[in-house]
Amino acid sequence: MVKDYGQINLHGSDPPRPIPFPLGTRSVAPRPVPFPSTPMTPPPRTRARRALIALLVSAIAIPSAAVAASGGAGVGPIASGAPSGGLDPTSVPVPSSPSKSSKGKWLRGVAVTEYWPVPESWFVGQLVSVPGLPGKHRVDWLYSAFGVSMQGEGIGLDGRIYHIASLGHAGWVTSDGRSTTPGSDGWSGGAPYWRAGGFWRNSAREVTYPLEIGGWSNGPGVKYVPLRGVTFAAGPSLPLKYYQSIAVDPSVIALGSRVYIPAYRADGHGGWFVAQDTGGAIIGRHVDVYRTPPAAATDPGQDLTDQRIYVIAPRH
User: ∠ CA 137-231-277 to the nearest 5 degrees?
Assistant: First the structure.
């Protein structure tokens, strides 16, 4: 159990010790913003992937002081050659679009969304320690439906890539603290807001958490909900490449398939991708494009419907 004063115990059964700043002096009211999300169901290597953008309708309004404390809304320095924003600037020869001799098939009615390693600099929660990661990281970056638990990967304040290694034994809750699970028709209880643990409940039993600048995101916490079994690790969890890798439903598109998405033909790679990843909310005719983080947290990325894509299955 974490005993460091002012630090939250995210994994023990007992609530953390009081935080040494005036609680409840600042409150951030929830407001709807378009933000990417992923589900809880564990895909290969226990990665969580984001759900449809439209499913997530609740986030936090960040006060200007909190933005300043967080280092701004930008991505910040990114290590290991991880660029931010825009299409892939590569200048490699672009493959041609499918021809009549291509050994594949067209798939219609496909939804295309995007995901990326989410920057910690976009978040405002208190710094906490967690299993598997050095130092401390912002609690909302770790456990909210906008952070690493949902996206699978994130870019820390140090510019390095980190990922969730084990999802633990809890699902998701909405901003008002009700359980919700993903399905083909959306989330059962409403848009996910936080993992089902690692947060406090306020007097109305809604989710709240301490801010790095002091105070709480949604009123003072009165009861802590523990979260067990979640671990994180340094580095990426899969060898994905920006604008070259996609997440798919393997029952529709086999892993290892080459996929052509006409809407991305100007991305620097001719619109060709490799199906390398999966996600609990990537169900049926839905593909998720792995891309660089956008320039701002409020940019939801592309969300395309009724697309026509070309799939070349892998040879076995």
Answer: 100
Query: What three-state secondary structure class fits 83?
Result: coil
Q: How many residues does the chain have?
A: 316
Tally of CB atoms within 10 A around 125? 25
Long-range interactions of 252-255: CB distance < 8 A, separation 24+: 252/107, 252/284, 252/285, 253/107, 253/287, 253/311, 254/313, 254/314, 255/314
**pLDDT mean across residues, the chain:** 75
Tokens linked to 14: 């007992």
Residue 71 CB: number of other CB atoms within 10 A? 16
Q: What is the pLDDT of residue 100?
A: 65
199, containing H or E segment: strand 199-201
Handedness of CA 243, 245, 250, 252 (dihedral sign): positive
What is the per-residue pLDDT across 120-164, written as a single tens digit (0 to 9) for each?
A: 999 999 999 998 998 999 999 999 999 999 888 999 999 999 999
Provide the Cα torsion 147, 160, 132, 202; round to 10°.
-30
How far apart are alpha carbons 75 and 14 in whole angstroms? Answer: 35
Residues 250, 255, 258, 261, CA torsion sign: positive
Collect the ranges in the chain with pLDDT lower than 50. 1-87, 89-92
Question: Nearest Cα to 246, choosing from 313, 300, 291?
Answer: 291
Q: Give the pLDDT score at 91.
A: 45
d(CA 171, CA 168) in angstroms, rounded, equals: 9
Backbone dihedral angles phi then psi of residue 113, each to the nearest 5 degrees: -125, 180
